[in-house]
Amino acid sequence: MLRFVTGNEGKLREAREYLPEPVERGEYEYTEIQSDSLAAIATAGARESHEAIGEPVFVDDAGLFVEGLGGFPGPYSAYVEETLGVERVWRLAAAECEEPRRASFRAVVAFCDERGVESFEGSVRGRLVAPRGEGGFGYDPIFEQNGRTLAEMSTGEKNAISHRGRALAAFADWLAER
Fold it and tell me: Please, which residues bridge with residue 175 across strands?
């Protein structure tokens, strides 16, 4: 069994789709360090969670990186979503960025056990559009890939291309070889 330290049900469901072993939620709120690096944030969270829980754990950190905004909100995406909201991020991008409003979602999954920390990265490129769709979570309604927003895709379609899915797939491959 794997322990995923997250409070996000959507992330937990996605991890369960990708990983061959059962995935349970790890109950712990680690300190999220402030950094411009997703990998630094995720590895620090994995180390702290492992020490607190006493079992192998994994965490993830992800962000929306908008090219025309210098990568903003990047690793601060969750905070920006909470304080500004997805609609205001869209309006900012629409006002400040030229078409096609290129962006990428990036994720890092960090696994920690008694041997140390391993991290796995995934990304998906797309563009920002006016909010559409009812599915997904976070920035999914404004992130378009191949003509549809992630919020317009089924869970299976989204997981097949998602940044977190790609990081989880790399993690799954590593687990299989280990």
Answer: none
Q: What is the pLDDT of residues 84-111, one digit of tens each?
A: 999 999 999 999 999 999 999 999 999 9
CB-CB neighbours of 58 under 10 Å:
30
CATH (residue range 2-177): 3.90.950.10
- Which one is catalytic: 60, 61, 113, 140? 61
Distance CA 151, CA 157 (A): 10
Domain residues of the chain, as ranges?
A: 2-177
H-helix or E-strand spanning residue 86: helix 86-96
* DSSP E strand boundaries for 49-115: 57-66, 73-74, 102-113
- Residue 109 is which amino acid? V
Closest by CA position to 144, among listed 130, 163, 156: 130
The H or E element containing residue 83 is helix 77-83
According to DSSP, the β-strands at 102-113 and 116-128 are antiparallel
13-23: pLDDT as tens digits: 889 988 988 99
Q: Is 140 a catalytic residue?
A: no
